[in-house]
């Protein structure tokens, strides 16, 4: 039986690669892609999702448009990293099809409630859609197999000393998700910063047909944000980690820990606080990725590109 997936994302250069990785899994049934603002405005992230799915040969996958703002306040745009339209200056043919009538959080809830099987949720943007779905329709919790998410960090931040962009963009939604009692696999910056793709590997990927060329473009544009920093020798392809884990869990070292999100700190609102040494006694609510097999991850990306080329 095919594994059922809902993919919530804000494409997004690294979301684009994560989506490629997911679409290449022939034993997955991707029920829908739901979009959220974050890396760009919701209009762009939604159009990018439509265009990417069409490019990957899956224009049949439903797309539901999500929230343009977090539960509280406003999103800080990631356009300085991903370009004003979300995928730098990569030009894809414009997909003309319709999006779903329901808003993303309602679509997620309805899809889960209608399903006789449990569904895996991959979340690679701010958790607004997923948090709203859980908050408004708690009966869906029994239908969620797991949420594999890119967000947060054990220590280091990218939009503040200790805050990661997705969790910082919607701390309330993050709080809802981590307190829902559902199984969570968390891929934070602590592990995505280890799981880099080197420039020579981008060159190898670029040689792998039209999907390799697109993947390499995403990696190269994304890497522009990191290449001048002394501690990055390759591109941290954050979002693909949350997908790769579901394909090959042994690529990651996971530990069951307590994670809370800071909702109030004047310097740390949106920070995920991971009790790595279990000193608080708080409940273990997330499997947190602490290390990865980088080479195995890159091989998985290459396999996915080849798989799409052969389809
Ligand atoms: O902090 C990295 C995350 O922020 C990734 O999901 C990236 O796409 C951006 O949204
Ligand atoms: Ca993302």
Can you put this structure into words, describing what you see?
With about 300 residues, the chain is an alpha/beta fold. It has one domain (about 5-310): Ribonucleoside hydrolase-like (Inosine-uridine Nucleoside N-ribohydrolase, Chain A, Alpha-Beta Complex), CATH 3.90.245.10. It is about 35% helix and about 20% strand. The chain contains twelve helices and twelve strands. The strands form three sheets. The chain has an eight-stranded mixed beta sheet, with helices on both faces. It has a two-stranded antiparallel ribbon with strand order 7-8. The protein is globular and about 50 Å long. The mean pLDDT is about 95. Calcium ion binds near residues 12 and 124.
What can be said about the biggest beta sheet?
8 strands, mixed
- Bound ions, cofactors and other small molecules, one mention each: alpha-D-ribofuranose, calcium ion
Strand content: 15-25%
Series of H and E elements: EHEHEHHEHEHHEHEHHEHEEEEH
Separation of the first and last Cα atoms: 20 Å
CATH arch. level architecture: Alpha-Beta Complex
Number of helices: 12
Helical content band: 25-40%
How are the strands ordered across the major sheet? 3-2-1-4-5-6-12-9
How many domains? The number is 1
Question: How does the SSE layout of this entry go?
Answer:
Elements (H helix, E strand, L loop, with lengths): L2 E7 L3 H11 L4 E8 L6 H14 L7 E2 L14 H4 L21 H11 L4 E5 L4 H9 L7 E7 L14 H5 L1 H8 L5 E4 L1 H4 L3 E2 L1 H8 L2 H15 L11 E2 L1 H10 L4 E6 L1 E3 L10 E3 L11 E7 L1 H17 L1
Parallel strand pairs: 1-2, 1-4, 2-3, 4-5, 5-6, 6-12
Antiparallel strand pairs: 7-8, 9-12, 10-11
Helix pairs in contact: 1-2, 1-10, 1-11, 1-12, 4-5, 5-7, 9-10, 10-12
The structure holds alpha-D-ribofuranose (RIB) and calcium ion.
């Amino acid at each position: 039986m095919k594994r059922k997936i809902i993919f919530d994302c804000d494409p997004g250069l690294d979301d684009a690669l994560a989506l490629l990785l997911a679409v290449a899994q022939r034993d997955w049934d991707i029920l829908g892609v739901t979009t959220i603002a974050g890396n760009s405005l919701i209009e762009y992230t939604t159009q990018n999702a439509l265009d990417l799915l069409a490019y990957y040969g899956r224009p049949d996958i439903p797309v539901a448009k999500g929230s343009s703002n977090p539960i509280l306040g406003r999103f800080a745009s990631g356009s300085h990293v991903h370009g004003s339209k979300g995928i730098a200056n990569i030009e894809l043919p414009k997909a003309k099809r319709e999006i779903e009538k329901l808003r993303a959080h309602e679509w997620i809830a309805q899809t889960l409630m209608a399903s006789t099987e449990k569904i895996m949720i991959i979340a690679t943007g701010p958790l607004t859609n997923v948090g709203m779905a859980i908050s408004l329709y708690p009966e869906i919790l029994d239908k969620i197999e797991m949420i594999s998410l890119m967000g947060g960090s054990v220590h280091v931040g990218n939009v503040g000393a200790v805050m990661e962009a997705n969790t910082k963009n919607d701390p309330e939604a993050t709080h809802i998700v981590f307190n829902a009692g559902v199984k969570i696999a968390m891929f934070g910056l602590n592990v995505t910063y280890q799981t880099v793709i080197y420039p020579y590997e981008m060159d190898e990927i670029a040689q792998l047909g039209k999907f390799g060329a697109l993947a390499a473009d995403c990696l190269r544009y994304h890497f522009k944000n990191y290449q001048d920093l002394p501690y990055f020798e390759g591109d941290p392809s954050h979002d693909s980690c949350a997908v790769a884990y579901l394909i090959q869990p042994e690529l990651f070292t996971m530990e069951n820990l307590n994670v809370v999100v800071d909702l109030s700190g004047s310097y740390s609102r949106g920070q995920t606080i991971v009790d790595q040494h279990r000193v608080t006694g708080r409940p273990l609510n997330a499997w947190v990725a602490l290390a990865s097999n980088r080479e195995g991850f890159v091989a998985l990306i290459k396999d996915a590109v080849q798989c799409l080329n052969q389809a």
